[in-house]
Amino acid sequence: MPGSLDTLTLVLLALFGLLGGIGITAVGPGGVLPTIGMFLLTGLSPSTVAGTAITTHVATGVLGTAAYARSGQLSDGPTRRTALLLAAAAVVGTPLGVLLNTLVTGREFGLLLACAVTVTGALVWIRDRRQHRAHTSPVSLSGEHTSTVVAVIVGLTVSVCAGLFGLGGPMLSVPLLILCGLPVLSALAAAQAQSVVIAAVGTIGFALHGSVDWTLAVVVGLPELAGVLIGWRIAHAVPERRLKFILVGALLALAPYLALHG
Fold first, then answer.
1. If you average pLDDT over residues 147-165, what whole number do you get?
2. Angle, vertex CA 168, rays to CA 9 and CA 176, nearest 5
């Protein structure tokens, strides 16, 4: 496929990868950008778009997990426990999402992706308003039976959507975990660990269907990998609200176009 694309398209796809990587570790919902880029700029089928996109998240998930382990978030017991629950749920949910992907047409994929993007933008906005009103620290998800149930439900929901659209997971899991009470950096760290399982299981599933463009995965994945490191640094240095407003604006602006494309 890359050989049939012009230079400008390849550059734009690489840019989608870079920005996606930054978004993954800076605010969470960034992994959708490579999917959006490939869906809008190539003639790939929905399964190949999702399969290629999810393949790029294997390396980004590993790097993101290592980055947050280094900064100490995954050394925290409650965060580590949440990450394990999310990852376990992903083993079940991701194959189901891959199966659902094989049943949708390009038109349906665009509409569903537009819905997912809109919901994500809304979740990021809601979580920001909630945090802005609250002047106390969020409550951890760990230690209670209901917390285990919530983490598993979030893990299953996110992994099914990730398998369907070729996402790594943080796009949905970070805002959902924060809405459930997990601190921002802890949510980002747990989501990175879950994304490794989602991406690995999803890659195997799509590869078995012959739905991974390996060359394009490199074109998008290498700049995405660089973006993960940039985003991790941004998450610790730049006011989060500014990043969230930019991301929400971009997602909501893209959603109508996605719905009409396909």
1. 91
2. 125
Q: Which residues contact 205 (CB under 8 A, 6 or more apart)?
A: 94, 95, 98, 99, 163
Using an 8 Å Cβ cutoff, are 115 and 50 in contact?
Answer: no
Rounded Cα distance between 41 and 39, Å, is 6
**How would you class 261 by CB atoms within 10 Å of its CB: exposed for 0-12, middle for 13-18, buried for 19 or more?**
middle
For residue 145, pLDDT over 60 is answered with: no
Give the residue carrying structure tokens 């494309």.
Answer: 261
Helix ranges restricted to H, the chain: 7-26, 32-41, 46-70, 77-101, 106-133, 145-165, 170-179, 184-208, 214-237, 240-260
Tell me how far CA of residue 200 lies from CA of 147, 219, 222, 256, in angstroms. Answer: 26, 19, 17, 31
The answer on pLDDT for 247 being more than 90 is no
Instruction: Give whole-number Cα distances, 79 to 10, 54, 90, 191, 216, in Å.
Output: 38, 24, 17, 10, 34
Residues 18-56 pLDDT 10s: 998 888 777 766 778 898 899 989 989 999 999 999 999
Q: Report the C-alpha gap between 238 and 246 in whole angstroms.
A: 13
- Cα-flanking dihedrals φ and ψ of residue 238, to 5°? -110, 140
Structure token digits, residue 211: 């739905």
CA distance readout (Å), 93 to 64, 153, 158: 21, 10, 8
